[in-house]
Every structure is written in structure tokens, then in C-alpha cells.
Amino acid sequence: MRRTSLAIVGLFWWALAAAPLALGGPAPAGAERLAGRRLMEMLDEHQRTADQYAEGLVSVEAKGLVQFLEPAEVRGVGLLTIGHGERPDEQWFYTPAIDRHRRIARVEKSTRFLGTHFTYEDMQPRDIDDQEYRRLDDAELDGAVCYRIEARPRPKTESQYSRMVYWVAREPLVIVRSEGWVDGKLRRTFHGSEVRAVDGIVTPHRWVVEDTLRKGRTTLTLRNVRHRLGLGEELFAREAMRVLHAPP
Amino acid sequence: MIGLCPPAGATDTVVAIDLVGDVFSHGDPSAQGWLRVAPRMTRSLSPRVVLMVAPVLEAETHGDLDRSRLYDDDDRALSRAPLRFDRLSVRFDLGAVKLEVGKQPLTWGRTDAINPTDNLTPRDWTDPLREVRLSPWAVRVNVERRRWEGELALVPRYAPSRLPAFGDRWALVEPQPFPIPAFPLAGPPELETRLDFADPRFPSTTLDNLQAGARLGRRGVRGEWALSYYRGFDDAPHFDLFPGALDPAMATLPVTVRPRFPRLEVAGADGVLLAGAWALRCEAGHFRFPEGLDEDFVLYELDAEWTRGSLRFVAGYADVSGAGELGALGVPGGDPPPAEGTSGAASLDLAFLPVAFLHLGRSLPTEWEASLEILIGTEDHDSLVQISGSWPVIDSLRLGGEIDLVSGPAGSFFGSWRDNDRLRLLAKFSF
Q1: B405: enclosing H helix or E strand
Q2: Secondary structure letter of residue A238 according to DSSP
Q3: Residue B184: is the preceding peptide bond cis (ω within 30°)?
């Protein structure tokens, strides 16, 4: 079994800002500036594993800077994303070996994110007004009764999922499971656990995504999560990709 | 306020060691080896000041490097020294303004094959299929505010791009004999050429000769564009040829070759337009030689790039219009013999144009990578095909290989290297 690691200094909206609420959901109040480290462990259909790490900072302005830490051969490689709600995101890819950043075309939302079971859409922010919501019957998950909310994308919203179902724990009030459905078939499940409050904000520290088509799963673990940090706008600039940014 | 830099006192170090073996189909030597050690260190001196050091230390088996000295700071020698610095600079983060002072790469431009707006950094084409950038000492200021970005770079000392040595396997043109029109009535049937290289006279490092580039760009949701201007000297040497007195006994024409480094001004523009999964890129530069000894030309490239996940496909075309169409290296040969003062630009960017190219690659950290690159000279029908692949055996080691296939008629750009098909084997350690 071969183990490799991929570490990322990043600004992951999904992993940090959105995780306390929902996959693809809006950021919680008071979470304007977040920082944290994430660890991903993938298990593919051949039972091979790969780890990914992220250590980063998050802004609710839907901006993200991802910088690889490991393996060493890609250390410093960066991906800068600036989201615009209904308009397409802007993205740049930085390669330190040639010291050049390159504007890239809009990434297909259903494309795998860096070889994991997450897709780019799963890692991107989503405006709360992009979906229509409906309350479903409550259900039990891991011995706890959860609210269930169905979300369907509005007509103008681009999404690979025809519907999402969020499972919200009652105490504390936090999403602990999300389901992504495509044309009536369950495509992915995201299971959140290790729920702890950090700086007053309830945060699941572990997420496991399972893909029904591409067998296997990816586990994402958050570490060193911090909220309410004052990050400068200049962090989300192309020139900023030339230097690795450790979280404060 | 959180600074942009890593925490003060933090040091980040990465070391890359490349072992490369080249096996050629012909020539002497038929095998070559390279060892390249490239540590990269970043040290935060304060929350807003970062020291960046990236030396490159090389060794090889076949004499491409200048072994008489370890380090060549001005990079003006005919051969590259074993030690150089990709980066030896201090960077100041002043909010939206970033200032970097020291040896640093200055990479402008947007397209893949040639970069007409990228004129601040000379190249080393000792192995022309593996271009090396020679970072100059420079001061660079970058300002990014909302959708606008501006950059100004100053390079006080000139260094030329380094060409493959004459007589080397990568030499583009070898001196050819000249036919004698009067033969058989007079003289031998042809004359051999003997090249004598005069010492180059580089531009002095004065305020008048300060090289400067400025770039202003704007980005939007659908794309972005930039305008740029460069004023300095052509990094590509021009060669003036001075035929000497004929030696009838030896049937040899001595020719003195004197490199010249003309003043250059380049007005450039580049842009990218996004259309779904496609990115359409263009880059062009108008090259003007104010001293009037060389004609203006326009160099341009158009690319179309498609990406999906880790897959990337690029198709492009590049050409030159104007005096650059000579595309020659200014090396004497053929018919007729060179007139006094004959001159040509030495840029490899010009020599292989017009060209169409394709790239198809898969790149994903921690997984296998593969790529196919094809360059086809649309005028001479010469070509370069590169097929490569690699696999990360363990965390710190990637093994790979590459096949370079060059072909074309004699006298064409790639055709002059057609005996240089090679297999490359690569082991890359990173830790």
C-alpha cells in the first residue's frame, strides 16, 4: 500500500467557513475570518490511500488561496479563486518553478478536486439565495434526531446536484450530514463528526465523503481551526501567491 | 492586521535534486548526465520582509558548463557557471504594494511557446530543448488594486542570452563552404570559412543603459488584458560579419564575427478570453531598434487551451512579421558569401518560426503524469515531438522519462538537430 501526502496551505471556504453550517451552505454569522489546517485521507477502490493536508485562512468574500505544502516537489504551487456569486469564479494557477501565474478557464463543477472524492463544486461557496428550501420529516442519525432540509438549485444556479438534503443536529445546531442527489439517485454523502465549538462557533472537525459511482471515500479533518481573524484583502492577490502563507 | 508573510523568524526550505541521463541516437558523446541541486529557502525577517534564496548547483559529464570558475555573477561568459541563483532577493510587503530587490526571475507574458513581452530575463540555450532562465539583479514593484495590476521592473546590468556553442551538437548552423563563381576559370571550386570571434562589447552599466519594463493590466470575469513596454537592449546577440583577406593557398575565407547588443524597445500587449472550458490567449510585441541598424518586427502568438480536471490541452500558433522573418542566426554560410556588416538576430524565438504546436498533458500531484508536445514548423515542415511521463515512487522520489524526436529537411531549424533524437531518464528527489 503506497502512502503519499499532499499538504495545502489554503483558504477553503467549504472546509472551514461552510463546514459549520453545511456543504455548500452559507457562512455562519461571525465567521468572517477563519484559519485552520485540514487533513484529507483518501481511500480508493484499490484500497490505496493518500493523505492531503491544508493549513489556511478563509474569507466570507468567497475568495480562496490554496498553496501546496507537500509533497515537496509541488510546494508553493498555488490556486487563487475569487468567487462572484451568480457570475463565474475567477481562478489563477501559480507555478513557482517558472514563477508564472496563469488564468485558467472555469473549472467544471463536477470535476474531481485534486484527485479526491470531492468535486470543485463541493469546495466552492454557495449563496444561500441560490437554492430553494423545503423542510422534510425529521430523522434519526447516530442516535440523535435531526432536522432534514431539502435544497434545490434555483433555475439560474449552476449545479451538478438536482437536490441536496441537509441533516441538521438539534443540539448543537449544526449540519452533520449532507446528501447530493443527481436525477433521483444519491451521488455523494458527506458525513460530519467531531463537533466542537471554536471561538463560539460550532464546527465539525471531520468530514467523510463517499461517492456512489467512483468507489472509495475521502476523509477531511480540520485542525487548528480559528475564527474571527483580521486578514487583509491583499492576501487574495496574484502577487501574494509568490510567498507561502502560514496561518497566524 | 495579519501580515502577508510567514511568521517572523520562520524558515521554509525545500531541496530538489535532479539526476538526468540523456542517451542520443547519434553523436559523441552518445550519453550525457546532469546533476542539479536546487535548494529553495524563504526566511521571514519580519512580518513584512522576506528573504528568498534559491541557488542552483549543477554538474555534468560532457563539458557544457564552464569549469574554470564556480560562479559567474554577470552571466556574460560563453558557458554557464556551475553555480547560479534563481533568486537572491528581499521582498517587502507593503499592503497592496510589493517591492522585491535582488536577483530574481522576471517573467512576463501569458502564452506557452514564445513570450514577446518577456524581455527582461535572458535565457541559456545551451540545451535549447531545456531553456534555462538567467535571473538578473533587479528592482521590481508590483501594485494590485481591485481589478488593476501594475508592475515596474528595473535591470541595471545587461546580460545576453546564451546560445549553443559552435561545434556543439546543438549548434544551429555550421560554417559552410562558399562556391566560387569563377571556377574553373579561376580559383578553387569553393572556399572554406574560418570564424574568428571578436570579444563582445557589452553595454556599460550606467544610468543611460538602465533597462526598464512597465506593465499595466486589468482583469475581469470573462478575461483579462495587459499592455507593456520595455526599453533596454536585445538579449539576443546580433552578429556583424567582417570578411577578411582571402588566403588562396588555403582556400579559406576568414570571417570575423562580432556580437552586437542593440538597443531595443518593445511595445507589447497580451490577453486571455475565457469561453466555457476554453481559454484563448494572445501575446504580441512590436520590436523596434532605435539605433536604426536593424528593422522592426512584430512577434505574436495565439493559443487555445482546454482544461478538465488534471487534463490540459493547448493548441497554438506563433509567427513573426517584418525583418524578423530572416529568422537566421547570422552565421555565415551558403551562397553568396556574407557582405561586410551582414547582421542577423540570434534569438531562437525567431529562428523556428512560424510554428504550430500542440500540448496534451495530465498533471496531478501524488499521481502519474504524462504529456505530449508537438511543434511543427509550418514553412520548413520540420518538427519536434516530446513524449514524457513520470510516477511518484515514494513521497520524495519521482521517476520519469522522456523521448525527444527531432526531424526536418537539412537546413531547417529542427532539421539541423535531426541526429539528436534522445531518450531522457529522470530521477527527481524533493524533500
Answers
A1: strand B397-407
A2: G
A3: yes
* 3-state SS, residue B55: strand
Grid cell, residue A101, equals 501565474
Reported as a single tens digit per residue, the pLDDT across B194-250 is 888 888 889 999 999 999 999 999 999 889 999 999 999 999 888 888 888 777 777
Rg (CA), chain A: 17
Which of A81, A89, A92 lies closest to A58, judged by CA?
A81
Distance from B121 to chain A by nearest Cα, in Å?
12
Q: Give B135's DSSP letter.
A: P
- If one counts every other C-beta atom within 10 angstroms of the C-beta of residue B424, the result is 19
| Closest alpha carbon within chain B to A238 | B144
Q: Does the distance separating the beta carbons of B310 and A243 come in below 8 Å?
A: no
**Among B5, B96, B305, beta carbon nearest to A243:** B5
From 3.40.50.2000, 2.40.110.10, 3.10.450.50, 2.50.20.10, which CATH number describes the A3-242 domain? 2.50.20.10
ipTM of predicted assembly, 2 dp? 0.81
Whether B1 contacts chain A with CB within 8 A = yes
> Per the structure block, which three cell numbers stand in for A104?
485558467
CA distances from B366 to B300, B391, B427 (A): 36, 8, 15
Which residues does chain A have within 8 Å of residue B16's beta carbon, measured at their own beta carbons? Answer: 72-73
Residue B348 host element (H or E):
helix B348-351
Q: How far apart are the first and last CA of chain A?
A: 35
CA B138/CA B212 separation, integer angstroms = 9
B298-307 pLDDT, tens digit each: 999 999 999 8
DSSP B83: E
Is residue B144 less than 8 Å (CB to CB) from chain A? yes
Interface check A228 vs B, CB under 8 A: no
**Nearest residue to B65 (alpha-carbon basis) of B126, B129, B135:** B126
CA distance A231 to A236: 10
